[in-house]
Amino acid sequence: MSSGIPPAIVVLMSSDPSSPTPRLAGTTGVPPAEGKAHMPLTPAGVAALAAATDFARRATAPATLRAYRADWAHFQNWCARTGFTPLPAEPWVVGAYLASLAEDFAPATIRRRLAAIGKAHRFGDLPWNPGHRDIQGPLQGVLRTQRRPVSKPVAVRRSLLGQLLATCDLSPRGRRDRALLLVGFAAALRRSELVGLHVEDITPTETGVRLRIRASKTDQTGEGVMIGLARGRQAQTCPVRALAAWQAVARRGAGPLFRKVDVNGRIREKALHPDAVRQILHRRGALAGLPADVLTRLTPHGLRSGFITEAYLADVREEEIRRHVRHRDPRSTRGYIELLDLVIDTPAGKVGL
């Protein structure tokens, strides 16, 4: 990492987990105490700090850390070019940075970059006030000027899912992609949960299978949760049959469930990267001949939102949907349903036009 960053930021924002273990913020061997000199740390003390640092790295999801690192690096590079100090950053410096993003970056990216700068200050126990007028003034001005329409990800409904599945043949890659798409849809999994599945997490039952989700966005401590998948009515869209077909060629009794398949059809040991789910969706979408405007809005989240949509339209109770998709806040599920209600129950359809 660049110089001038407090150790706590190095702990949580370092891109190299094998780098030497930094000290925790505010420590010089042992916690400070007024008027007392400190003895050198014993091996036990060094081990205790190393353990604390290791757990600090695990406190935030890897994907979130990657985003923070990229955004923080962008701000640092901008400061290096303009001569400003990144840490601690004066509010007017942050405001100038946000203004510089107006031409090239979407509102969501600008807000995320501001959040990353705030994280860096909080990690270093430095003053931070995102509501300061020198930050909010430029921010609101940029957002008001842009007024870009939000490009909503497309929900992968059953008809669209069928188009994607139709491109999956009986090759190892075709079987893997079919199982990945169907499990991702039927279990309403996030992409990190999908590629994080292991063979040992699949337990056959009389009516289908049980999936163990080891950790997720709403389960940062890794307590895990079980999800049931029933056998489908149709062989081509049954997630249980698709899993069995994939495992028949993968032939693995343990380790990552969804693995890389090379161009020669050889199944590798390494698990898929989370971004591979997006790449698979786009590849299958292109093979299915989807329109460009649909293809560009095809994301892994579309499998999850597509399931919620289909479940709601099939009169599944909202509480059951929320439990299955693991939404802690009912408002999260309600957001999807309200969007559907705008179309289904719109007053414009009830006035006899």
Structure description:
The chain is 51% helix and 7% strand. It is mainly alpha-helical and 353 residues long. The strands form two sheets. It has a three-stranded antiparallel β-sheet, with no helix packed on it. A two-stranded antiparallel ribbon has the order 4-5. A hairpin with a 3-residue loop joins strand 1 (202-204) and strand 2 (208-213). Helix 3 (62-82) packs across helix 5 (107-123), helix 4 runs parallel beside helix 6 and helix 8 (172-186) runs antiparallel to helix 10 (239-250). Residues 1-8 and 15-35 have low confidence and may be disordered.
Question: What attributes characterize this protein structure?
Answer:
single chain, 353 residues, mainly alpha, 3-stranded antiparallel β-sheet, two-stranded antiparallel sheet, 15 helices, 5 strands, 51% helix, globular
Rg calculated over all Cα atoms: 24 Å
Termini Cα gap: 63 Å
Class by helix and strand content?
A: mainly alpha
Mean pLDDT: 82
Helical fraction equals 40-55%
Question: Uncertain segments of ≥5 residues (pLDDT<50)?
Answer: 1-8, 15-35
Strand/helix succession: HHHHHHHHHEEEHEEHHHHH
3D shape: globular
Largest sheet: 3 strands, antiparallel
Widest beta sheet: strand line-up = 1-2-3
